[in-house]
Design a protein that fits this description.
Elements lengths: L2 H11 L4 E5 L16 H12 L6 E5 L12 H9 L3 E6 L9 E3 L2 E4 L19 H18 L3 E5 L14 H17 L5 E5 L20 E6 L8 H11 L7 E6 L5 H5 L1 H5 L5 E6 L24 H12 L3 E2 L1 H6 L2
Parallel strand pairs: 1-2, 1-10, 1-11, 2-3, 3-6, 6-7, 7-8, 8-9, 9-10
Antiparallel strand pairs: 4-5
Length: about 325
């Protein structure tokens, strides 16, 4: 890491509170279809609903994520960094083996959820290795040109089987080393590396690439319960044992449209060792487990007012480090 990135990492490690982050935010208009997430619409929606408590972290999707091509919002990332925010980068690449297929602008094959071929083709000796390396080198140059410290969360939830990079522990560790070395070769020194399995899925530690290539241990959490479920806290405790010096992050948490969870959230989150942040994923749609369609998310205008009141009380807690509080701690 360069000096500025190391200083930011040390601030994270010593933070006296939980950094508030925002991930993908599908912000639907009233009674309309969801829109593709982007920084401007996401922050505008957040301000509309929750006012001054802006997130201290924002995660930009830098992969195709089941779309024909990525829209990399580097200008917006730069502006957010200039505001004092922590830029996160998620990399969800489409499958490099299966030709992209689509009709009317929609993917029908070759997306990140197309698991055919797995990881073998992009590793050394594979048919798609050269194309993958060229793609990653270009991405590395873009990160370097960004110039500001950022947190990279590539190829997440690898202990599941819903992405083409998932369910392959040995090959996944090779993939991580390959990508890590490529960024080093390109002179990228402004990255904090976040390795992020799903804590709801077993065998996460089997995919750990090693402490020399990981700075933050993150997880994805989706559940419908009044507090962190036992299997989640057990999974987090297991992951925390991998390194006693690395921050833990709820890299995806949501949609959690439950008043009781947010009323008792600080007590629940206190059970997570070395927790330094959470990135809220407040999307609507297919991942609204256990919730009614008319109150599927904290960004849905039809959600009950008492739910939003509980969430706003959570945001107002001094231990929740919004952008304003994060800047004030400098």
């Amino acid at each position: 890491m360069d000096g500025a990135t190391l200083a930011e990492y040390n601030r994270i490690r010593s933070a006296n509170g939980i950094l508030l982050g925002l991930g993908e935010l599908f912000a639907p208009p009233a009674h309309g279809e969801r829109t593709e997430p982007n920084y401007r619409t996401s922050i505008a929606r957040w301000k509309e609903l929750y006012g001054q408590h802006l997130p201290a972290c924002y995660e930009f999707e830098m992969g195709e994520a089941n779309r024909p091509a990525a829209t990399r919002e580097w200008d917006e990332a730069r502006r957010f960094a200039e505001m004092g925010g922590l830029v996160w980068l998620q990399l969800s690449l489409n499958n490099f083996t299966v030709p992209l297929g689509g009709r009317q602008g929609r993917m029908v094959g070759g997306g990140m959820n197309d698991v055919r071929g797995g990881l073998d083709p992009v590793l050394p000796g594979g048919a798609s290795h050269g194309r993958f390396v060229a793609h990653m080198r270009q991405f590395a140059r873009e990160i370097k040109a960004h110039g500001k410290p950022c947190i990279l969360r590539p190829f997440h939830e690898m202990n599941g089987r819903w992405f083409w990079w998932g369910g392959q522990p040995e090959n996944y560790r090779k993939l991580w080393r390959l990508v890590f070395d490529l960024l080093q070769e390109e002179g990228v020194r402004n990255v904090i590396w976040c390795w992020a399995p799903s804590a709801n899925t077993p065998r996460g530690p089997d995919y750990y690439p090693g402490g020399d290539m990981v700075d933050i241990i993150g997880t994805s959490q989706y559940f419908d319960a009044p507090a962190l479920p036992g299997d989640v806290t057990d999974g987090l405790a297991e992951l925390a044992k991998l390194a006693d010096d690395k921050p833990i992050w709820l890299a995806e948490l949501g949609p959690l449209a439950r008043e009781d969870f947010w009323r008792g959230s600080l007590a629940s989150l206190a059970k997570v060792p070395r927790l330094r942040g959470l990135n809220l994923w407040l999307a609507r749609g297919w991942h609204v487990w256990g919730a009614k369609p008319d109150r599927g998310s904290l960004i849905d205008e039809t959600s009950p007012q008492e739910l939003r009141d509980a969430f706003e009380a959570f945001l107002a807690e001094p231990k929740i480090l919004s952008l304003e509080r994060w800047n004030a701690s400098r």
